[in-house]
Amino acid sequence: MTQPPCEPIVATIQQITQQLATINDQLHTLEVEGMNQQHPWRYIVLQRQVDRLIKKKYVIQGTWGRAMNELAFCRSAQPSPHRPLAPQSPQKSSTQTLADAPEKGGPAIHATDLVQATLRAWEERNARALASYLSDDVICKQIFPQPIGKAQLIAFMQAITTAFANWSFNGHVLDQEKQAERSWSILFVTAVTGTQTGDLVLPSLPVIPATGTSITLPYRHLRFLVTNNTITMITADFSPSGIEEVLAQLGMQLP
User: Fold this and answer.
1) Which residues of 178-190 are buried (b: 16+ CB within 10 A; e: fewer)?
2) How does pLDDT run across 91-119, given as a tens digit for each residue?
3) pTM reported for the whole predicted model
4) Which of 29, 45, 76 is the last residue of a domain?
């Protein structure tokens, strides 16, 4: 069976992403050891190890970026494996959602389009569109320390994009795999950026006033399970969770 033309690039990106994840784990281990280290000379040794890992990480990130560009070029040169979304009518505004597509029995919305539209709705702070892409019983893991459902995810989107008006996932669909009839697993790689220009208001936490701080999260994966044209599960590899990574870059932590 002929290998898809872009598959070797996808495999390379997956290897690079794993290398980045390993380095991030090593940096976290050294950070914990450094905070608990009492001997100044040992602390200097740890700092040198951190510096070497960071330099290695920058090199690998550059390789990752070039590979992603190659993948984008490769896929743009290939025939689309699925039916593209129908263009919006000029009479409809940009808030039109995929939920406006034909109901059951009509053409299926491809899972990759649904995932991309979901993240676009998040960035555009469009709660109605986001809700339309999620199943009522959707489960989201690693966004918070504990799994959350649909209402909590939409509330988090509204809170985080109020605080970070320029929140961007900066990502691409990395891989797609058919699970069953009308069920797909979509792997999305992301490196979130944003600047806190508004207050961050989250349940059970004190209000975090606007700091003007810009954040750049490490490369992470979001995996979406799409069943019958809705997203039924979202899992991530934020460490230890998405909100904790955001707070850490603001110089804070969960109580």
Assistant:
1) eeeeeebbbbbbb
2) 333 334 444 443 433 334 588 889 999 99
3) 0.61
4) 76
